[in-house]
Specification:
The chain is mainly beta. The chain is 0% helix and 54% strand. The chain has no helices and eleven strands. The strands form two sheets. Strands 2, 4, 5, 6, 9, 10 and 11 form a seven-stranded mixed beta sheet that branches. The chain has a four-stranded antiparallel beta sheet with strand order 1-3-8-7, with no helix packed on it. Strand 5 and strand 6 form a beta hairpin. The protein is globular, with a radius of gyration of 13 Å. It starts with a strand and ends with a strand. 30% of the residues are buried.
Amino acid sequence: QVQLVESGGGLVQAGGSLRLSCAASGTIFTINFMDWYRQAPGKQRELVAGVTSTDGNSPYYADFVQGRFTISRGNAKNTVYLQMNSLKPEDTAVYYCKAMLFGRDYWGQGTQVTVSS
C-alpha cells in the first residue's frame, strides 16, 4: 500500500514563498506520475502541477500558477517538491500530493497553506 506524506505548509504573507514536500513509501516501484492538487474551502479540488517522469523534465502547471510555482523531483526515490513563490491570498488551500501507480491513485493527507494579505 502506497502512503504519501506531505509537509512544508504554513502561514505566509502575500508575496512570500513556501516549499512543499511529498514522500511516498510502501512500494519498491518507481512512481512516474506525481501531482500536486489543492482544495480551498467551499471549492472543488483542483490540479496545481504535476510531473510525468522521474527526472522531472515533463512538468505541467495550472494556468493560475504559471511562473510562480515549480514542481521538481527529489534525489530520493518517489519524492516530489512544490516551490511556491509570489504567493497570493487566493492560493490559500489544503495542498495534496497524488501519486499514480499501476493505474491506481494514492493521496496524502494534505498540508495547509495560508497566505495572509
